[in-house]
Each structure stands twice: as C-alpha cells, then as structure tokens.
Amino acid sequence: MEFFVGLDVSLDETHFCVVDECGRIVKEGRCPSEPSAIARSIRHKGRRIEHVGLETGGLSQWLFEGLTKEGFSVSVMEARHVRAAFAAMRVKTDRNDARGIAQLVRLGWFKRVHVKSLDAQGTRALLTMRAFLVEKVTATENSLRAALRNFGLKMGAVTRRTWEARARELAMGQEMLEQIVEAMLRVRRLLLVELEAVETRLLAQAKADPVTRLLMTAPGVGVVVALSFRSAVDDPDRFRRTRDVGSWLGLTPRRWQSGKTDIVGRITKGGDARVRTMLFEAAATLLGRVRLMSPLKAWGLRIAKRTCMKKAIVAVARKLATMLLAMWKSGTAFWATRREPASAQDFAPA
Question: Which residue ranges does the record assign to the Transposase IS110-like N-terminal domain (predicted)?
C-alpha cells in the first residue's frame, strides 16, 4: 500500500498528516521544523511513503533538500493553488491544513514549484543584500536632504562622489546641522563600503560564469540583470517553450472571458517581482540609452509610436526575457544584425 504525507510548516513546529491510497488518515501529529525530526515522525517500519508535499515558504527550500537526502520524494506546492483548494474550509487550523495538503498530494491536484539549486539560492541572497543596501543608501540620502531642506538648504543635483562635500558645505557654520550631517555621512559611508563589496563579489561571479557572460551580450543587460535572470530561471530546460518565461514572470496581460465578454487587462505581475523589475529597467535602457539599433529596439520603438513608451517597455521586457532564455538554451550570443559575430562562440556555456 502507498502512503502520502502533507506538511503544514511554521517556524518552530510542523503539523504532519499521513494518509493511505484510499485517503484514510494513518498518522498525524506535530514535530519540530527540522528535516531529521520530520523524517522520524513520518517514517514507519513497513510503510512506503510515496510522496511528501509542503507549501512554498521561508523553510521550504531547506526542508526540500533535507527530506530529499532522507530518501523521500518531495514536492513544494504553489501556495496560491493550495489556498484556493482550501477556500471552502470553514475551520482553518494547522492540523486541517496538513490533512488537506496530504489529500492534495494523494490526488495530484497541485502545481509543483521548481526548487532552486544551492548556487542559485546563494546568488539570490547576494542580490537581495545588494537591493537592501541600495535602498538604505537612498533612504539615508533622502533623509539628510529633507533635514537640510527644513532650513532652506538645498542639495541640488550632485553625484555620489560630491555628495559628502556638498552636505558639509551646506551645514558649515551651524553646529547642530554639522553634527547631524556627520552622523548621517558616517552611516552612508559604511553602507557604500558594504555595497561596493557586494557588487565586487557579484562582478567576479559574473566573470566566472559563462552563462552570465552570454546573457550580458544582449543590449541593456548588465551584471545585476543577468545574474537575476540566471538565478531565477536556474534550469532553462524546465520551460518547454521559450515564450513561456514571459507569462512565468508576469509580463503577459490578464484575461477574463465568459460568453461574449472578453476583457484583456494589464500584466499579471506574477512570479519573481525583482526579475520583472530588472527586465523592465533593461528594456528602458535598451529603448532610451543604447545607441546601437537592433531588430529588438526597432520593434519596441514601433510599438511606442503606435501606443506609448510604457507599453513598449513592457513588451520589450517580455521579448527580452524570451530572447535571453533562447540564448541560454542555444548557447548563442546576441547580435544586432542578421550576421552572427565571430566572437559569439567565446560566450558559449561550458
């Protein structure tokens, strides 16, 4: 007889439920949220666990790796699908959630989520740290600007190198402001040092990775965009068609159709928000700053002329995601003309 397990995971403890192939509950309870503790709780002599399921969450990747090493077949389930399946549940408890997940695993009524490799998770952690530091540097500068503005002192347009000198110049001669400025500048300086260290590490990682260098041949795609896309996709073969990556990133329009009603709305904004933002910025750079004309840029400019620049940027971002995945799968570098450059093979992944 086959058995299926549902896990409702929280930070400290996990509720589990084991059901047989007929849906009858064989065992249920709770245990610490540790792979070894969960494995001991659901394992039983003579019981062959066919499948273990859990929702996406903060511990899902770690538990997936740990339970896989314990010898179980594990699936991480899309949380939105699980929530929709439990919409009719009148009493929602962790115990009932574990029961429901076990039944979903038994019936196969769930969408499996790709669990990223350890390398992809490490890259994502670095990119998250970089985004955090950039946000804090910007918040520190804006806070200091606002403090000076209250006294009629305006920073104006300054660069990162001239920021400190300009702030000290405005606060000169006012003891209170000088103390505030020096304190904020020390915080800003420390954040910039850490930000530079993270960016140096990301740059070294991009140089050492042939796939990232390949993606960076596309116009508008730099180190951060290429690493964000690479770590998010992780495995290009999980997309049967390259155009599927656009909908996976939430860059395709919403649609609601019923009878004679057919409404096409804005993009779904599903999937990884950071990668979608990076692709949007890359598309804006391609259409605005990149001088080299290419079929992709010409196509985007035609859309902008027909509709508006914002819609053109979204369309180019979706097309760019498709092209990046195609480049990754084929090992071919981007070229702006119909003729392939001689250096394209230099970027082919190993």
Answer: 5-150
Q: Are residues 266 and 322 in the same domain?
A: yes
Spatial distance between the Cα atoms of 21 and 41, rounded to a whole number of angstroms: 19
For 132-190, write each residue's pLDDT tens digit: 999 999 999 999 999 999 999 999 889 988 999 999 999 998 899 999 999 999 999 99
| 286 & 334 share domain | yes
For tokens 């050492």, the residue is 208
111 three-class SS: coil
SS3 113: strand
Global pTM value: 0.86
Q: Which residues of 74-89 are buried (b: 16+ CB within 10 A; e: fewer)?
A: bbbbeeebbeebeeee
Residues 6+ apart with CB under 8 A from 253: 264, 265, 266, 267, 268
Q: What angle do CA 119, 123, 127 make, to 5 degrees?
A: 170
**Apex 322 CA angle, 56 and 238, nearest 5:** 45
Using the CB atoms, write b or e for 187-217: b if 16+ within 10 Å.
ebeebeeebeebbeebeebbeebebbbbbbb
Counting the structural domains of the chain, the total is: 3
Q: Rounded CA gap, 85 and 102, in Å?
A: 12
Tabulate helix, strand, coil % of the chain (nearest 5). Answer: 55, 15, 30
Question: 188 and 271: one domain?
Answer: no
